[in-house]
């Protein structure tokens, strides 16, 4: 029974997405019922699965070494929970928003297919299965970027594809070496490297592991393979941007986490040049993303650069290789997903209801779209890290983990850059709120009642409230993820 549910969590969205163009619903109501049923059923199956002690399913063997199999562990639970409910709330919003974009059958087909690929990657038992679904996710999410078929969107989609595939090839090289020098390709906390096989090859393996993590980092926006995010998000529909930033980009984080802690092992790279290089790239990405977001005037592109920076917070926590820092990274995976989905859906509502795309055009929106602007404000407070909102909790553990890590200069440099980034985050988010609620005398104010239907503002407001509530009631989440973090070492 449990094995069947585990497999259904992966196959349901894949089958629903594949069948949608074939069934070709003629009315929006029929399509909405179909999509909503699939998303609700997926969320129900995931909830039931998460309540089980364990679940595992073997599919088939390609060779004695390469097998496709699934297993649920603590990491799987976190990423699967985010995917199922993030897609559900965004999907509800998209039922109305995509009337603005058109080609709704195509969008929702790939929307559901990408959810299935994410579920397969989240539940992967070994590197082979994870890599298979990692590549599948790229191919199934790319069409959401080129949805409107303009030259700009096609270029952005190709850029996303090329960056992701180039990164995946580096990652595949890493997997080749892991299959040679590991006892197994299955995931085990602490890693699987064979000391007898690796002896004398440490330098070579460190180079390979460095490149593999950078390759998987392309999906997460790690410098220097971050360029696809600010190109893809401005042209993709807002619901696609929301799940790509809040959820799909975390596939890169998941892959890095699996390689570093469940395949290589933290002890193999701790204190080496590899750890310092990873931390240097992550902190450079944090600062660069925040600075570019501060300078950017196109709202969705500003949020894209923000995602580059904020996901690098997570990678910084992972690369510090301490339980506290990893806990902070895992918390930020969850909190950032909630916050950034809210912010991108807010951007979509501004575009849908007013056609405005630049931040200087949002003066007075707090009077015409108060619910949406309040949700944006709550999410902004959380992203900056104002206590007691959720972002404060994750950044607290990231800073404490850095101070306790003993990793040379990064002990103080990481908290310093995180604080500078938080200041820049306030600089590119808070002025929108201020101008939205206090446009100034003589400034034109938009017409009232531009909020749009409840199907759009309810998910946004719920996410905005969650971005604060998860910080207020974070204790059980921290306890649960502490157990996950400990199991990784």
Helix/strand layout:
Blueprint: H1 2-23, H2 28-50, E1 56-61, E2 67-71, H3 74-97, H4 104-122, H5 127-145, H6 151-181, H7 195-198, H8 202-220, H9 228-232, H10 238-248, H11 250-264, H12 266-269, H13 273-295, H14 299-320, H15 323-354, H16 365-368, H17 370-384, H18 390-405, H19 410-437, H20 454-472, H21 475-486
Antiparallel strand pairs: 1-2
Helix pairs in contact: 1-2, 1-4, 2-3, 3-4, 3-10, 3-15, 3-20, 4-5, 5-6, 5-10, 5-11, 6-8, 8-11, 8-13, 10-15, 11-14, 13-14, 13-19, 14-15, 14-18, 14-19, 15-17, 15-18, 15-20, 15-21, 17-19, 17-20, 18-19, 18-20
Please characterize this protein's 3D structure.
With 489 residues, the protein is mostly helical. The protein has a domain of 220 residues. Helices cover 75% and strands 2% of the residues. The chain has 21 helices and two strands. It has a two-stranded antiparallel ribbon with strand order 1-2. Strand 1 and strand 2 form a beta hairpin. Helix 2 runs antiparallel to helix 3. The model has no long low-confidence stretch (mean pLDDT 89).
Provide key terms for this protein:
globular, 489 residues, 2 strands, single chain, two-stranded antiparallel sheet, mainly alpha
Main structural class:
mainly alpha
Radius of gyration from CA coordinates: 21 Å
Kindly report how far apart the N and C termini lie: 31 Å
| Unreliable runs | none
Average pLDDT across residues?
A: 89
- How many β-strand runs? 2
What is the string of helix and strand elements? HHEEHHHHHHHHHHHHHHHHHHH
Strand order of the largest sheet: 1-2
Rough shape?
globular
């Amino acid at each position: 029974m449990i094995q069947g549910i585990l497999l259904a969590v992966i196959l349901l969205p894949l089958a629903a997405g594949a069948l949608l163009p074939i069934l070709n619903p003629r009315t929006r109501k029929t399509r909405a019922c179909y999509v909503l049923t699939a998303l609700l059923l997926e969320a129900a199956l995931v909830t039931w699965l998460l309540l089980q002690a364990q679940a595992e399913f073997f599919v088939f063997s390609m060779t004695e070494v390469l097998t496709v199999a699934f297993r649920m562990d603590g990491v799987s639970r976190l990423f699967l929970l985010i995917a199922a409910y993030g897609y559900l709330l965004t999907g509800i919003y998209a039922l109305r928003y995509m009337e603005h974009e058109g080609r709704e059958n195509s969008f929702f087909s790939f929307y559901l297919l990408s959810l299935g690929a994410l579920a397969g990657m989240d539940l992967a038992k070994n590197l082979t299965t994870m890599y298979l679904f990692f590549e599948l996710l790229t191919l199934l999410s790319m069409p959401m970027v080129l949805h409107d078929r303009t030259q700009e969107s096609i270029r952005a989609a190709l850029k996303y594809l090329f960056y992701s595939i180039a990164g995946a090839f580096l990652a595949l090289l890493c997997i080749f070496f892991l299959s040679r020098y590991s006892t197994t390709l299955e995931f085990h906390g602490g890693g699987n490297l064979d000391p007898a096989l690796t002896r004398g090859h440490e330098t070579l393996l460190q180079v390979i592991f460095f490149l593999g993590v950078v390759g998987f980092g392309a999906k997460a926006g790690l410098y220097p393979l971050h360029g696809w995010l600010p190109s893809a998000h401005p042209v993709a529909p807002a619901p696609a941007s929301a799940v790509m930033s809040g959820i799909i980009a975390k596939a890169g984080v998941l892959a890095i986490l699996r390689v570093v802690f469940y395949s290589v092992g933290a002890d193999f790279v701790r204190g080496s040049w590899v750890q310092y290089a990873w931390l240097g790239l992550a902190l450079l990405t944090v600062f660069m993303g925040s600075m570019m977001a501060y300078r950017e005037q196109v709202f969705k592109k500003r949020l894209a650069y923000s995602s580059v920076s904020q996901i690098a917070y997570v990678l910084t926590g992972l690369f510090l290789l301490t339980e506290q820092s990893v806990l902070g990274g895992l918390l930020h995976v969850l909190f950032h997903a909630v916050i950034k989905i809210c912010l991108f859906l807010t951007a979509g509502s501004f575009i849908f209801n007013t056609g405005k795309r630049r931040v200087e055009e949002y003066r007075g929106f707090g009077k015409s779209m108060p619910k949406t602007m309040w949700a944006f404000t709550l999410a902004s407070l959380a992203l900056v890290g104002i206590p007691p909102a959720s972002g404060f909790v994750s950044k607290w553990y990231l800073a404490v983990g850095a101070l306790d890590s003993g990793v040379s200069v990064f002990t103080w440099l990481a908290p310093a850059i995180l604080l500078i980034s938080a200041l820049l985050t306030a600089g590119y988010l808070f002025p929108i709120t201020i101008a939205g609620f206090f446009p100034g005398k003589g400034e034109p104010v938009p017409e009232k009642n531009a909020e749009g239907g409840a199907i759009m503002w309810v998910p946004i407001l719920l996410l905005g409230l969650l971005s604060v509530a998860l910080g207020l009631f974070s204790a059980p989440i921290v306890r649960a993820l502490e157990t996950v973090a400990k199991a990784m070492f």
